[in-house]
Every structure is written in structure tokens, then in C-alpha cells.
Amino acid sequence: MSGKSLVAGLAFSVFVLAGLIFWLIVMNDPWRLPRGDWSRYKKLFVSPEGRVIDTGNGGVTHSEGQGYGMILAEAYGDRATFDLIWNWTKTNLQTRPDDKLISWLWKPSSEGGSVADPNNASDAEVLIAWALVRASKHWGVYSYEQAAAGILVELKRLAVKDTPNGPVLLPGVQGFELDNALVINPSYYIFPAFDVVSKAFPGGGWDQLGRSGLAMIPAARFGKWNLTPDWIRDESGIYGINTHFPPYFGYNAIRVPLHIAWSDPHSPLLTPFADFWKEFPGLSCMPATVNLETGEYGPDPALPGMQAIARFVLACRDGKQLIVRDIPPLMPDETYYSASLKLLTKVAVRESLGGKR
Predict the structure, then answer these.
(1) Which end of the chain is less crowded, N or C, counting CB atoms within 10 A of the terminal residue's CB?
(2) How many structural domains compose the chain?
(3) Torsion angle of C-alpha atoms 324, 274, 54, 190, degrees rounded to 10
(4) Per-position DSSP letters for 13-33, written without gaps between them
(5) What's the pTM?
(6) CA angle 323, 46, 72 (to 5 degrees)
């Protein structure tokens, strides 16, 4: 063998060895987000145009879903899909004539589809602004952060109200100020988002909103298990279960402990949720809802994404190790909402327990 051939062979061997070492490191990273989950999520729920499809509700699109899609696309480093979802959102939902908020409901039709309700859903604005700030830092695109600033300025102007307990985030601009009381959805308080946007836009008041939201959680617990209801009534600073909605801890409020743990995995606010879920060993018989007035469990089992949140919160409260691959993979029969909760939980585990922010 000539000298050149020997050198070339050694170089190739080193290249292969380096590639193998890199692959082993990456594949054994306990905080790695599985690419298969994201590929399946896109295949099941993201249209070629960038519309995130709610398969459990007749194929509609919610502004919340667009926010979830953007958060996940950024977390998985998929800028092409991020831009696809954001551009569809701007074109089809950010169409209110007097502000930069985002209509919450879009329905498909034989003519293609259109906005079915122009009211906003405030969690979507928080999610989308959070995703844009994350993307701006990730990919160095300042226009993302500019877009986030425009959304947040309008959200604060139109949906944040001062109360005796501090600022409150209305679930939407219209329909949530009733009978001298405010209607609040605690799951719209996305604490890790407030952490990020308050640093990006100092003086915007998002840190204050986060603090008032955290103070609300222990002050608005009800029932045998001291759980947070899906909907709250705030009357002059006094909290109660909102009578316009079922008195459940369920599909909405399940996100409250996710948001708390994502922001602070050591928070004592996680204790009531963990105590409740400890009643269901293995979580296989965990109910999707519990009536906070009667203590009765709902008839439906918790979605896999809800079980993922419970597993995350139990690990946080009990100080037990939990890594991303401990959460089961996304399955092809999961609905949009379950899938979104499961993948968001994996991102939360990676960022809060793995320190991979």
C-alpha cells in the first residue's frame, strides 16, 4: 500500500470513528428530543400550508394550536416548519382590523375555510410571542422579536386588567367581564413564557402578571384535593369556581402544573396536583376530570398527554430522576391535544430538569 493510500485510509478511519462517537453521544443524550415524535406530529397535525389541525374537533384550527406548533418547531430546531406555521397564522388568523391579536378559531369548508370566531384566546398570544422570542434567539432573526413585541403590546392593552390582587389576564378581549366579575382561565398563565418575555421586554409588566398568577394558584384551590378549576370567577379579588362552566379540574387546568413545573420544578405549588395523582398508581386509571364540588371522577380516562404531565409533576415533587425518553413516544392514534401535551411535556422535562433551555 502506498503512503498516500495509507494516509487516506487512516483519515477515513478517523472520520468514521469520530462520526460513531458523535452518534453515540447524541443518541445517548438523556435530554434529546426524539426526532420521530416531531416527524409523526407534523405528519398527523400540520398541513402543508402550516395549519395545525385539531383532529379531535372536526379538523378545526385554534390559535393555541398554532402557538404549540411554533413552540415545538423551535424546540426541535425546525425553522422551515416554524416559518410555515407562523406565516399561515399571520395570513389567516392575525386579521383583526383594529389590533395585532389573533382570532382563535378557523374552520375548514368546501371553499377552503375561514375565521369562525374573530375573538382572541389570550394563551395563544402568549404562546406565539414566546415562540417568536425563542426563535429570535435561536436563529438570530430580529423580525421575530419585533413581531412578538407587537402582539404583547396589544395583548396587555386589551386583555390585562388591574385588580386588587394585581394584574389579571382575561381569556379573551370579549366576553369575560360579567356581572361585576372577571372570568379567568388559570391555564392561560404560561409561567415559563412570562419568564422569557419579561427578560426580552423589560418593563412590559409580564413579570408582574406571572407573580400575580402564581399567587392566584394557592388562593383559588377547591374541593377535596385542593385543585385548580378549569375556570375561575374573580369578584373584587375573591376567587370562586365559575358557575358558567362545569366545576372541573380537567382538560384546561391540567396545563397549570405543567406550566408551574416548566418554570420551577421545585415549586411547592405542585404538591396538591402530585398528591391527587398519587392516588392512581401507574397513572393508567387516572381520570381526565374530577368534579371539585362533588369529588366525583369523570367517566373518561386521562389522555396520554395528560398522563405525561402527571408523571413529570410527580417526579418534580418527589425529587425523582426523569429524562425525556421516560415519557412514552407519540402514538399514531393520539389526538392533537394529547399529542401536543405529550411533546410539550418532553420539552419541559428537557428544559427544566435537563437545563437545556
Answers:
(1) N
(2) 1
(3) -90
(4) HHHHHHHHHHHHHHHT-TTPP
(5) 0.92
(6) 30
Task: Tell me, yes or no, whether 180 lies in a domain.
Answer: yes
If one counts every other C-beta atom within 10 angstroms of the C-beta of residue 354, the result is: 16
Give how far the C-alpha of residue 151 lies from the chain's centroid of Cα atoms, to the nearest Å.
18
Would you say residue 224 lies in a domain? yes
> Residue 167 is placed in which grid cell?
394584574
Count CB atoms within 10 A of the CB of residue 96: 16
DSSP annotation of 161 reads E
Contacts by 56-60, CB closer than 8 A, 24 or more apart: 56/335, 56/336, 56/337, 58/107, 59/108, 60/105, 60/106, 60/107, 60/108, 60/116
User: Given 37, 74, 78, 123, which residue is catalytic?
Assistant: 123
Q: Which of 64, 74, 78, 154 is an active site residue?
A: 64
Structural domain includes residue 1: no
Which domain, by its residues, includes 213?
Answer: 32-353
Cell (9 digits) for 165: 390582587
Give the residue from 118, 235, 102, 230 showing the smallest Cα distance to 181: 235
Q: How many C-beta atoms surround the C-beta of residue 22 within 10 A?
A: 10
Query: Is the residue at 18 inside a domain?
Result: no
Task: Report the C-alpha gap between 89 and 106 in whole angstroms.
Answer: 10
CA distances from 124 to 129, 151, 158, 316, 327 (A): 8, 10, 14, 26, 25
Q: Can you tell me the distance from the alpha carbon of 138 to that of 148, in angstroms, rounded to the nearest whole number? A: 14
CATH number, domain with residue 158: 1.50.10.10
CA distance 191 to 266: 14
pLDDT tens across the length of the chain (357 residues): 566 665 555 555 544 444 444 333 445 699 999 999 999 999 999 999 999 999 999 999 999 999 999 999 999 999 999 999 999 999 999 999 999 999 999 999 998 999 999 999 999 999 999 999 999 999 999 999 999 999 999 999 999 999 999 999 999 999 999 878 999 999 999 999 999 999 999 999 999 999 999 999 999 999 999 999 999 999 988 999 998 899 999 999 999 999 999 999 999 999 999 999 999 988 889 999 999 999 999 999 999 999 999 999 999 999 999 999 999 999 999 999 999 999 999 999 999 999 877
